[in-house]
Amino acid sequence: MAGVLSKLSSRASALGVGFLLVAACTTGGSSNTGGASSTDVTQWVAWGGQELAAYRDVLKPFEASTGIKVHLTTNRDSNNQIANGIAAGTDLPDLAPGPTDPVQLKSWVSKGSLKSLESFLDMGAYTGGTYPALTTAPGGASDDPYIGIIGGKHYLMMVKTQVKGLIWYNKKVFTGTAPKTFDELLAISPSQYGAQKLFCAAFESGTASGWPASDQIDNIIMRQNDATFYTNWIQGKVKFTDPQIKLGYQTFLKEVSAANVYGGSNTVLTTNFGKAGDPLFKTPPGCLFLEQATFIANFFTQNFPGTKAGTDFDFFGHPSMGNSQFDGNINGFYDNISMYNDTPAARKLMQYLATAPAQQIWANDGGTLGAIKSLTYTDPIFKRAADVAGTAKNLLVTAGDFMPSDMQAAFWKSLLDVTRDPNSLDSVLSHLDAVQKAAYATS
Amino acid sequence: MVINVDQIITAVVAIVAVPLVLLGYIYLGESVIERLGERIQLWIRPYFWALPAIGFATVFMVYPLLRTVVISFRNNADDTWVGLNNYVYFFTFPDTLTSLRNSLFWLVFYTFFAVSLGLIISILLDRVRYEQAAKIAIFLPVPISAVAASIIWKFMFDYQPPGTTQTGTLNALLGVASQQPVAWLVNSTTNNAALIFVGIWSITGFCLVIISASLKAISAEVLEAARMDGANEFRIIQLIVTPLLWPTITVVGTTMIINALKTFDIVYVLTAGAYDTDVIATQMFSQLEHNHNSRAAAVGVVLFVAIVPLLIVNIRRFQQQEEQR
User: What whole-number distance in Å separates Cα of residue A60 and Cα of residue A44?
Assistant: First the structure.
């Protein structure tokens, strides 16, 4: 035994402990990425579960008709891994989500890692068919990194979209007409409809608490100002103490004031966002309206089984803040696919995904809007959401998501703080200026 | 589900090959040492056996520690020296100052209440027949992980709008006394206290059993003699029991201070540092989360420097106790 061991150990010790430690510490580095194949496509997606199943449905007709095999990997860290791959010069997947960080986008474009849609797609059909807010920079600018446009070329192919800032209501309670402006909205008397307060709100979300509040204030600021001001603010070029940002905070505070919000600020701050809409369906109703994105419909039907979208609850688009020229600014997000390896098979897949029949499969599976305008929806919520998306001139991203992460965290916290104590607004805003200065300096 | 073969091979190598190599090191090394002279053998063998452990400790503990100190003086990209910038940030920025203040609250109140409750309860329980049952009850929260305990307390602190049914235990009790509900974790006068209370609740049992064990070691004759001399129970506790327990109290106390300084989970789960409840450890975590590695390193170094003297005190105490035995 000892002899065997010593023989074995002599060989192993020749390798050295250190070598094995190194081996144990390096992660498996194989990436199933291919060369310029015309029969295989490797693709990273961020989707899992239902969303991934829907994408497989989209791929089925493509794989059957072309014989191309799509190798899917769900990778929620794809941005970092692609960044590492680009830096190290190792293999990249053929297709993957493009970067949404403007700095990263510009850098990858300049390195030639991202292939422009212009090189393989019929751009007339693409920009003509897709929601303009997803493909056209405001005012015809040649750069709009937030939707993947650099130097007049498109690098993110839009496949799905969602709109935010929708005002939800219980159809059995609120029977009036949708207000056109924010002032009209504030003027609605909840007691006229038997409700206690005008608004519901709930900002608790664990370590991400405050994000629902940031959606609300984003929708205000982007309609009180033009798109350039809004993106400048995201990029740290506008201070939080700027009068227009302060105006945004003050307007937001009207939505969560003790007079207007159900349960007062303590309820808003301690209630989880998923339960925000519950008082809409209570008797007597706690509130008339809740501002939230399309996903909240799932919480309504989950928390109150039997309620149905379109018959029991519905929504209207965010009212104008009084400046009609900014009404086309709409808050939303999108799913995109970018090309990292220009192969014949990858081109074919991208061309297929840009077609209406492909995206219609997505729409049929539910839960999202496609990027193409002409799709049809059976779900009344998405039918209406498509109308809202159609009115968008500029699709503006959710501000915090594109700020440096410490800025985002401070921004979310600031909304909790002013909700708790509206009198702290000025000190909160000047604190945000200090965070902004530090956050953008090092990012 | 794609199975990554490389990763499996790596895992097998780590689990099987590393121990094999260590075994090989020992067999091979011993066979060499056996052939050396007796005196050299005696001298070299301890070093030989300790070397792998020292190697592991160096690679996984000493090196990261030194590296952290270095990073704390570097910029975020780790390409230039920035002097004390990261420390200046830590000691001047309002958010980090708040976390320093809160850690100080934790240090004072958590330590004081955990240790003194442990002491008082152990002395009181020493005189009753149901001591074991009571000890078990107070010790029960100790094995609960801090995250689970925090989630339990999240329910206890739950807040519902005034006028509706209060589902949180504390606010339900307030309701019985016809008081308005309190948003325990939001209200700035209650939130830090609420968090520290959860900490005390989950650790008092630990202080209790340690102090109680040491209390049992005090000889009954000493106490009997004091009583014979006419000392009342308060005098006995003040002049005999507490001084005899002092070494134990110091060890428990310093351990509690270290616990207080590195508090993370309770704060992270219950408030995530919102509403001015951040502590040093959550601050370090969020600096890391926001990719400010060098600032996080500076926070880590400050925390380390604060804890080292306490560790030294603790180790000295242990050594003294060892010598007394």
Answer: 17
Q: Measured between beta carbons, which residues in chain B are less than 8 angstroms from residue A266?
A: 159, 161, 181, 183, 186-187
Does residue B306 form part of some domain? yes
Asked if B162 lies within 8 A of A434 by C-beta distance, the reply is no
Distance CA B267, CA B245 (A): 32
**The pair of three-digit structure tokens given for residue B57, joined into one six-digit string:** 């400790």
The Cα of B80 is separated from the nearest Cα of chain A by a number of Å equal to: 13
Report CB contact under 8 Å: A13, B21: yes
> What SS3 class is residue B191?
helix
Residue A394 parent element (H or E): strand A394-396
ipTM of the complex: 0.83
- Structure tokens that stand for B8 in this block: 């499996």
How much is the pTM? Answer: 0.83
How far is the C-alpha of B226 from the C-alpha of B242, rounded, in Å?
14
Q: What angle do CA B307, B311, B315 make, to 5 degrees?
A: 175
Q: Which amino acid is at B136?
A: I
Domain span including residue B23 = 5-51
Closest residue by Cα to residue A122 from A417, A275, A351, A377: A351
C-alpha span between B101 and B119 (Å, rounded): 27
Q: CA of A264: which chain B residue's CA is closest?
A: B161
**Same domain flag for B44 and B95:** no
Report the CATH number that the domain containing residue B239 is assigned in CATH.
Answer: 1.10.3720.10
Distance CA B259, CA A209 (A): 27
Whether the CB-CB separation of B206 and B117 falls below 8 Å is answered with: no
Nearest residue in A to B13, CA atom: A24
- CB-CB under 8 Å, A286 with B275: no
Task: Tell me the per-residue pLDDT of A80-97, one tens digit each, with 9 for 90 and over.
Answer: 899 989 988 889 999 999
CA distance A163 to A317: 9
Q: Is the dihedral of CA A88, A92, A98, A100 positive or negative?
A: negative
Q: Give the whole-angstrom CA distance, residue A169 versus residue A285.
A: 11
Within this chain, do residues B242 and B113 fall inside the same structural domain, yes or no? yes
**DSSP, residue by residue, A249-275:** HHHHHHHTSTTTBTTHHHHHHHSBGGG
Sequence-distant (≥ 6) Cβ neighbours of residue A14 within 8 angstroms: none
Provide the sign of the torsion angle of the four alpha carbons B125, B126, B127, B132, taken in this order: positive
Whether CATH 3.10.105.10 fits A40-163+333-396: no
- Write out the two tokens for B255: 């351990």
Residue A358 clears pLDDT 60, i.e. is over it: yes
B100 CB-near residues (< 8 Å, 6+ apart)? B91, B280
Query: Do B43 and B130 share a domain, yes or no?
Result: no
Say whether pLDDT at A5 is over 50. no
- SS3 state at B10: helix
Is residue B167 domain-shared with residue B234, that is, in the same domain? Answer: yes
Q: Closest-CA residue in chain B for A417?
A: B275
Q: Are residues B161 and B242 located together in one domain of the fold?
A: yes
Radius of gyration, alpha carbons of chain A: 25
Domain spans in chain A, listed from the N-terminal domain onward: 40-163+333-396, 166-328+398-442
Which residue reads 């007049």 in tokens? Answer: A152
Instruction: Say yes or no: B13 and B99 in one domain.
Output: no
Token couple for A228: 């350039």
Among the partner residues B21, B93, B272, nearest to A12 by beta-carbon distance: B21
Q: Is residue B176 part of a domain?
A: yes
- Give tens-digit pLDDT for B262-318: 999 999 999 999 999 999 999 999 998 888 889 999 999 999 998 888 888 888 887
Note whether B38 and B140 are same-domain residues. Answer: no
Tally of domains in chain B: 2
Pairing between strand A40-45 and A69-74? parallel
Q: Which CATH superfamily is A166-328+398-442 part of?
A: Periplasmic binding protein-like II (3.40.190.10)
Please, where are the H alpha helices in A225-320? 227-234, 243-255, 264-270, 296-303
**Residue A365's CB: how many other CB atoms inside 10 A?**
16
